[in-house]
Amino acid sequence: MSQDASPSKYQAGPVSGSKVLIADDNQQNCELLDAYLSDEGYEISMAFDGQQTLDAVADSQPDLILLDIMMPRLSGYEVCQQLKQDKRTKDIPILMVTALAEKADIEKAVEAGCDDFLSKPVNSLELKTRVRSLLRVRHLTNERDRLLAYLSEVEASQEG
Question: What is this structure's pTM?
C-alpha cells in the first residue's frame, strides 16, 4: 500500500456543512428557502438566473442545487440538462422547486435530469426532508467513489 493510500483520506463528510445552491430569479423565494434551511448547518449560496446558476456551479461545485424552472437567460430545464450532460456536474443532485405543478411540467423536469421535484408554496418540513435525503445520497455516492479509488490504488500497489 502506498503511504497516502489510507481509508481516512477517502471518508465522506457529514451532511451538515454541505454546500447548497439556491437558484431562483425571485430574491424573496431564495431568502425563504434559505430561512427554512438556516438551522440545518448548510453553506448556502444563491443565483438569480440560469447563466448565473451555471457560473456558480462551476465556481463552487455545490453538493445540491435547488432550482427554479422559470428563470431569465436560461430556464431551469436548460440549466438542469446542461449540468446533467457535463461529467463534472452530472452527479450533483437537483431538486426542482417551482410553481409549475402540471404533470407535463414534472415530466419535462424529469426528462431534463432532475432528481426530485417540489411544488411551491414549499412546506418547510418537506423541503428539509428532501434536501437531507438528497444530500445523504450525494455523500454516499462520494464515499463509494472514494472507496473505489482507494481499492484501485491498493490493487495497483500490490501489482507493482
Answer: 0.84
